[in-house]
Amino acid sequence: MKPLRCLLADDEPLARRGLKLRLQAIAGIELVAEANNGREALALIGQHQPDLLFLDIQMPGVDGFGVLRALPVARWPLVIFITAYDHYALDAFRVHAVDYLLKPVDDDALRAAVERARRLKSQSELEADHARLLALVGGERPQSLGERSDDKLTLKDGTTLIRVALNDIRWIDAAGDYVVVHCSDANHVARATLRELAERLPGERFVRVHRSTIVNIACVTRLRPHINGEYFIDLKCGQELKLSRGYREQLARFE
After folding, report:
1. What would be the CATH architecture of the domain defined by 143-254?
2. Structural domain boundaries of the chain?
3. Using H for helix, E for strand and C for coil, what is the string for the chain?
4. How many Å is the maximal CA-CA distance in the chain?
5. What is the pLDDT of residue 27?
6. What is the pLDDT of residue 96?
7. Are 55 and 41 in contact (CB under 8 A)?
8. Are 155 and 162 in contact (CB under 8 A)?
């Protein structure tokens, strides 16, 4: 059985050290990297592509939720949150079926969380877990899609309207009934399917490149052949996406 490749992200060195020691006592775990803040975590996730991420929620700068919002959903590892939240917040985590560890970390709770991660590793279960995480990241009142004008997309959050300029959208990805709209200055989680959103966006400017990804053509700098008819897509912001072989007919859109 291949080991679970793990990354730790926590701004408290003692907490990381304690978790590292406990993980070393569990068979089938390979620790690939440690990050002491959210920005480091983003860089290391891209570098190592871990199977499992132990993610502190409260970190300076980019917090745990911010780390997930900044990543393409298709590249999310399994996530076990590290939290000091009280029991009311933990109840919310239970509802969303997301694993968590309460500081200080308990050995039995850690082993149980790791075993659950092993069970979730299959692709179908991983996608379901990503959908639950998106629901959590979006909060209890997720945004929903509103009307679109020629140059803006309106997202609704309760009674608040957020108008996103189409030029600012870099890419959009999805899991389940949620999408993440990645913009130049912020990322927005909305309750919608990618099909619904594709119908609202101008087809001459946005193209679907994966069952879970739409990209702004203007943000693409190059396409690089991969394997089996797939391509890597490089964006101006430095992000790398993938064009799957099921969407190869879209290649002509980038010429």
Report:
1. Beta Barrel (2.40)
2. 4-137, 143-254
3. CCCEEEEEECCCHHHHHHHHHHHHCCCCEEEEEEECCHHHHHHHHHHHCCCEEEEECCCCCCCHHHHHHHCCHHHCCEEEEEECCCHHHHHHHHHCCCCEEECCCCHHHHHHHHHHHHHCCCHHHHHHHHHHHHHHHCCCCCEEEEEECCCEEEEEECCEEEEEEHHHEEEEEEECCEEEEEECCCEEEEECCHHHHHHHCCCCCEEEEECCEEEEHHHEEEEEECCCCCEEEEECCCCEEEECHHHHHHHHHHC
4. 57
5. 92
6. 46
7. yes
8. yes
Residues 6+ apart with CB under 8 A from 7: 31, 32, 33, 34, 35, 41, 44, 45, 48, 50, 52, 53, 54, 77
Q: What is the mean pLDDT of each run of 10 residues along the chain (255 residues)?
A: 91 93 93 95 92 90 85 82 67 53 86 86 64 64 55 70 88 81 84 84 92 94 91 92 91 87
For domain 4-137, say whether CATH 3.90.226.10 is its number.
Answer: no
pLDDT of residue 95: 40
